[in-house]
Amino acid sequence: MTGATGYIGKRLLPVLLENGHEVVCCVRDKARLRVDPEWVDRITVVEVDFIQKSTLNEIPKEIDGAYYLVHSMTSTSNGFDLAEAVSAHNFKDYMNTTGVRHVVYLSGIANDPHLSKHLASRKNVEDILTGGNYKFTTLRAGIIIGSGSASFEMMRHLVEKLPIMIAPHWLKTRSQPIAIRDVIYCLEKVLFKEECFNRNYDIGGPDVMTYQEMLQELARIRKLKRRIYSLPLPIPRLASIWLYLFTPASFHLANHLVRSMRSEVVARNNRLHRILGVCPMTFFEAVEEALALQGRGLRVEGQA
């Protein structure tokens, strides 16, 4: 599993272990991966930098499945898309030398004809990984709602800190949020699912909402009176600074997210929910669960 110290990786790892898998965790820094002592014997931790092809030799050859959860959205470099492409090529080339049968990639919904640089890079990575000598499945998600998710935490901080919000007209862009619980369920169940080999699926909850509607609903759930105004502010940098000042996001992460908000992220109709037997949580249910976890002090940091 790549990206084992990221938001998704931290949530997925215990599920895979509970299902009886032995997991090879690929991380840049072993010290960042904290593992429950009862699982230590079933985890192999290797330090890998996918930009540096030679470091991939630490990954065992005897593997059956792999999750590609790598992205560079917090990168300070304008060339993050090139870095993501290099990482994907190196991963694919190395997987071709192993016994891996199935690779699963978590990407972003890419149905809008005018994709942001971030979403276009995700789609490019998918195209690169498709060319491997293994079965391949892509799950494409939009905003992930969960305690510690960067997208959710940004919305929560805005609602809790600002009685009046004046934001760009991108708040009118539609999205289809999905609960972190449902993302992990789909990732878990799709592995080695032959019906899903060599296919891509959009995953989303039942609600299609604008970003403004999500903020308003979050305020209602938190029992806070908030006024939100959308104005034609054309400069992404100003919106990024605004998010940086009032939320926990770094400026670079805020900048990528703001630019991505111009692209509509609504899922296509597909059969994945029926295939996997999942009934996705509503936005309300996902927010309620995230807030309940925070209330109990259970919070997993991440970038999703």
Report a brief summary of the structure.
This protein has 304 residues and is of the alpha/beta class. It has ten helices and twelve strands. The protein has helices spanning 7-18, 80-95, 117-129, 150-161, 180-190, 211-221, 236-246, 251-260, 272-276, 283-295, and strands at residues 23-27, 43-47, 65-68, 102-108, 135-141, 144-145, 164-168, 174-175, 178-179, 199-203, 209-210, 227-231.
Task: Explain what the structure shows.
The chain is α/β, with parallel strands linked by helices. It has one domain (7-295): 3-Layer(aba) Sandwich (Rossmann fold). Helices cover 38% and strands 17% of the residues. It is built from ten helices and twelve strands. It has helices at residues 7-18, 80-95, 117-129, 150-161, 180-190, 211-221, 236-246, 251-260, 272-276, 283-295; strands at 23-27, 43-47, 65-68, 102-108, 135-141, 144-145, 164-168, 174-175, 178-179, 199-203, 209-210, 227-231. The strands form five sheets. Strands 3-4-5-10 form a four-stranded parallel beta sheet, with helices on both faces. The chain has a two-stranded parallel ribbon with strand order 1-2. α3 (117-129) links the parallel β4 and β5. α2 (80-95) packs parallel to α3 (117-129) and α7 (236-246) packs across α8. It is globular, with a radius of gyration of 19 Å. The protein starts with 6 loop residues before the first helix and ends in a 9-residue tail after the last helix.
